C-alpha cells in the first residue's frame, strides 16, 4: 500500500474523493460520487476503503456507505431505525469506529445516538435522554468510550464497558 492519504471534498450534491501523496506532492482523483440531496456529514472507515455519508432527502434522511474506488453504494443504513428516536430530525453526525474492521457506525440524530452494527444490520446500542441536540460524536481508539457534545457546549463521555456517563466540566463559559 502506498503512503498516500485520501481526502473527501463534499460539495452540496457531490463528493469528490482524491488521493494525496506527500512524496510526489500530487493529487489524483479517485472517484466522484453524485448525491441526490445535500450531505450533512461524512466519515471514512479506518481502512480508507469506505465513506459513510448522511444526507437530507426530501422524503426521508438517508445514510449510505460508498466504496470509494468506484463510488458505488455498498450499504444503506435503514432510515426506519430513527423512527423510534425522540426528537429525530436528521442524522447530524456520524463516525466509523477507529478499528480497522469498521464494524460499528456511530450516528447522532436529534438528542440521541445510535450505534449501528454493520455486521448484524441491527442497532447495537441506543443512547437517549440528552436534554439538547447533539453537535459532536467521537469514539476513542479502543472503542470503549464515546464522547458526545451538545448545543450548549456540554460534553459527556459514555463508558461502553460500565454503561455510565461522565460529565466533563470546563472553566470556560460561553
From TrEMBL:
Lineage summary: Eukaryota, Fungi, Fungi incertae sedis, Chytridiomycota, Chytridiomycota incertae sedis
Name of the protein in its database record: Uncharacterized protein
Species of the source: Physocladia obscura
Gene3D superfamilies: YVTN repeat-like/Quinoprotein amine dehydrogenase
Amino acid at each position: 500500500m502506498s503512503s498516500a492519504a485520501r481526502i473527501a471534498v463534499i460539495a452540496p450534491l457531490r463528493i469528490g474523493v482524491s488521493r494525496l501523496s506527500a512524496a510526489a506532492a500530487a493529487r489524483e482523483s479517485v472517484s466522484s460520487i453524485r448525491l441526490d440531496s445535500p450531505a450533512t456529514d461524512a466519515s471514512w472507515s479506518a481502512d480508507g476503503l469506505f465513506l459513510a455519508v448522511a444526507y437530507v432527502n426530501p422524503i426521508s434522511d438517508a445514510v449510505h456507505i460508498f466504496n470509494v474506488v468506484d463510488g458505488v453504494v455498498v450499504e444503506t443504513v435503514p432510515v426506519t431505525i430513527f423512527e423510534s428516536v425522540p426528537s429525530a430530525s436528521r442524522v447530524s453526525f456520524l463516525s466509523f469506529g477507529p478499528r480497522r474492521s469498521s464494524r460499528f457506525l456511530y450516528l447522532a440524530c436529534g438528542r440521541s445516538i445510535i450505534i449501528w452494527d454493520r455486521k448484524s444490520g441491527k442497532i447495537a446500542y441506543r443512547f437517549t435522554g440528552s436534554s439538547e441536540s447533539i453537535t459532536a460524536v467521537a469514539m476513542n481508539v479502543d472503542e470503549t468510550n464515546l464522547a458526545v457534545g451538545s448545543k450548549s457546549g456540554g460534553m459527556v463521555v459514555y463508558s461502553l464497558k460500565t454503561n455510565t456517563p461522565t460529565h466533563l466540566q470546563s472553566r470556560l463559559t460561553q
